[in-house]
Amino acid sequence: MKIIFLGPQGSGKGTQAKFLAKKFNIPVICPGVIYRQEIAKKTKLGKIVAEYLNKGKLAPNNLTNEIIKKRLKKIDCKKGFILDGYPRNLIQAQFLDKITKIDLVIEIVLLDKKCLLNRFIGRQNCICGAVYHLKFNPSKKNGICDKCGKKLFIREDENPEAIKKRLQIYYQETKPLLKRYQNMEILIKIDGSLSIKEVKKAIFNKIIF
User: Fold this and answer.
1) Residue 74's Cα: distance from chain center in Å?
2) To which CATH superfamily is domain 2-111+160-206 assigned?
3) S-S: 126 plus which of 82, 115, 130, 206, CB 3.0-4.6 Å?
């Protein structure tokens, strides 16, 4: 199964992607996680991407495309994969079409922008890709990742101004992308304003296992 999760930052798509990944026993691939790991390692790639992320901007299409292409060649993607946060625009979608065929696109819909901004307050991240929230999805030990035991952090690009800029870019570039997948009849929409458990149930009910 090859699945794409789409939705604005704060919609909860990353959390839901992990639920499906566990069900299908396939990896979740997120360019943002890959980039943050490179930044932490202080690699050449990490330094380049850091300049974009710290300004609330996205990495260039060609850079992101090549990262995804390389990742999809790994053996753990043989049975399928879930893409979280990719593709973000038509250029990336067209590139993806050349290297693989997507079975399903799940859009987490959350129209209340104020709600989206509020969801970032209390949000904590881990270098391994895990995401927590002090109110909605706290780690078992405060400030420590349940998965790898490393210290959690708040991303520099999750300040209010950077978030607003990222959301604006998302809505502008993703609208034609959603229309494209809808025309391909592989797009399903899920109400992201529900609780984590309710969203999970809605997604599972939409998919026949």
Assistant:
1) 19
2) P-loop containing nucleotide triphosphate hydrolases (3.40.50.300)
3) 130
